[in-house]
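Table S2 (continued). Query chain:
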Amino acid sequence: MNEPVSTALCRTAAAKVVKAPELLVEAPMLMGAEDFAEYTTNCTATFSGLGGGGKYPQHSDYFCIDESALESGAALYAQMAADFLAETK
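Corresponding output:
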């Protein structure tokens, strides 16, 4: 489960870095096979996706990421860190 404060921080940061607001979408709840749930036992967290996929799913042998999504992902993490540090001062 995404932690509400971390999720709000992520949403605010995403709105600052994504050039096309219509690309920001809230995904439905999913039962993925990630280790995310284990990480959240040690810290607050939220799970976000970049939307860099193509016609094949992420764990397919044929998956090929759209590398232009990586710029937005790096910017999102940097913005989240800056916003978090600004809040904790």
